[in-house]
Design goal:
CATH class of the largest domain: Alpha Beta
Order of helices and strands: HEEEEEHHHHEHEEHEEHHEE
Number of strands: 12
Strand content: 15-25%
Mean pLDDT: 78
Radius of gyration: 48 Å
Structural class: alpha+beta
Number of domains: 3
Largest sheet: 5 strands, antiparallel
CATH topology of the largest domain: Beta-Lactamase
Distance between the termini: 41 Å
Length: about 450
């Protein structure tokens, strides 16, 4: 399946968005880190320069016990780079700073100068040794490893808050960007979820990302095959029902003729005629469903329908049967004049109400009541057919609109398609079909709630 619009890669867009956002935020983080690190290391190097000055001063004093210094900077602030110095002659410390040990940091150093690691009083030191072999003098400068770690900890204390903030900001930006990039997936999912059993049109493939395009194409293949199968089923049902109508009509006429010719067989022929009539009704129902199934709600022709004449016409058409069985058939219309019209397909609305009324007449015992009601309920029209017959149990009530379903224990003839036709017409109009208790809390009410059509 080809499209005019070139597909694009969702993965590449997502990757580009994350890399772009990460790069911008990383540069901002780097700027903050660089500023803080520069500030901290500037103090470190300043302290080191001061210590170097004191080291030179200490190294140029006389090398005797008077050179021992308890504190080179009395009253000074705590130093971040605290270096301790020793001047060693013949393995003996002649001069040292107050924090340096009395014994040399490193004994027996053989190189001219260099670094060494030492452990004094369970403390690790990093030591730099300078030797003057002619004068047999060593200058040893040491710094505790712990002080270096303290500097790193202080740097981390200054950095954790801005770095954490940047990470949170990065997560938020990536969340927003990926949501925007993945928007086509949500749109496609919504379009698929909005499809109804009557809507088997193909999902659009134009502008779909490359990763989603195979899924949409596969779904369209399934929808196409399903539509073809349903069309074939509907054609078969319509053709079979249409072809059956003529022989059934002919058979009915022949049985009627035979019944006249053989009056002694009136009872069996009467039963046969009832079976033929039931078969004809079934064929008519199948034809009706075959015409309704391909229709869609959007393409349904609607026009204003006056309810009062429609209800009177339905009652008049069934008055004779109701009178013959002693059933009271009434119309209750409580609509105001401005509510007397609904927007619907006239023929379909009449078929739906006629099926509800015939269903009530079929299952309501003789001598009971049936009422056709038109009312205004919670801002919309409500049409209902109620009776005070035997009613239907809760489990069967949930299945009344299933095709060919009939309540067990009923002697009345029927095909089980009447309420299915009503349900299909209701779906096409956007109506709600539901059932409840009938007149006086007995029997059954079949209720159609019509949606309000904006003017």
């Amino acid at each position: 399946m080809s499209t005019d619009t070139a597909s694009w890669s969702l993965r590449r867009r997502l990757l580009a968005a994350i890399i772009a956002a990460s790069s911008v935020l990383w540069l901002a983080s780097l700027g903050i880190v660089t500023y803080i690190a520069w500030h901290e290391t500037t103090e470190v190097f300043d302290d080191a320069l001061e210590e170097s000055g004191y080291m030179i001063m200490a190294a140029t004093t006389d090398w005797d016990e008077r050179g021992l210094l308890a504190e080179l900077r009395p009253g000074g602030h705590a130093r971040k780079v605290d270096m301790q110095y020793q001047i060693v002659v013949d393995g003996r410390v002649l001069q040292r700073t107050g924090g340096a040990p009395a014994l040399p940091f490193v004994a027996g150093f053989r190189k001219h100068d260099g670094f060494a690691d030492a452990e004094v009083d369970d403390r690790r030191w990093r030591v730099f040794v300078v030797r003057n072999e002619e004068r047999n003098v060593e200058v040893q400068v040491g710094q505790k490893y712990k002080q270096r770690l303290d500097i790193l900890e202080e740097l981390a204390e200054h950095l954790w808050l801005p770095v954490s903030g940047m990470l949170v900001l990065l997560a938020l930006v990536c969340w927003l960007l990926t949501g925007r990039v993945l928007k086509p997936l949500r749109q496609t999912a919504s379009a698929i979820a909005a499809k109804t059993p009557d809507d088997l049109t193909l999902a659009p493939t134009a502008g779909q990302p490359a990763e989603l395009l195979p899924i949409v194409q596969a779904l369209n293949g399934v929808l196409g095959r399903l539509d073809s199968a349903l069309q074939a089923e509907r054609r078969f049902t319509a053709d079979a029902a249409h072809e059956l109508r003529t022989p059934l009509a002919g058979l009915h006429m022949h049985v009627q003729l035979l019944q006249r010719q053989h009056p002694e067989l009136a009872a069996p022929f009467g039963k046969l005629r009832q079976d033929i009539s039931r078969s004809t009704a079934l064929v008519d129902s199948l034809l009706t469903l075959a015409r309704l199934d391909p229709l869609s709600r959007e393409g349904l022709a609607r026009e204003p329908v006056a309810l009062a004449p429609l209800l009177d016409r339905l009652r008049a058409a069934h008055d004779d049967e109701a009178a013959r069985r002693g059933i009271t058939l009434a119309v209750r219309d409580t609509l105001a004049p401005e509510q007397a019209t609904v927007t619907a397909h006239p023929a379909m609305l009449e078929i739906a109400l006629r099926n509800l009324l015939e269903n009530a007449l079929r299952y309501c015992p003789d001598g009971r009541r049936i009422e056709i009601e038109a009312s205004w309920h919670n801002g919309h029209h409500r049409l209902a057919v109620r009776d005070d017959g035997p009613g239907v149990d809760e489990a069967s009530m949930r299945r009344l609109t299933e095709r060919f379903f009939r309540v067990l224990g009923q002697d009345a003839s029927g095909s089980g398609l009447g309420l299915s036709i009503v349900k299909r017409i209701a779906d096409l109009h956007g109506m709600t079909l539901h059932f409840g208790p009938g007149l006086g809390g007995r029997g059954l009410s079949a209720i159609l709630d019509l949606p309000v059509i904006p003017a």
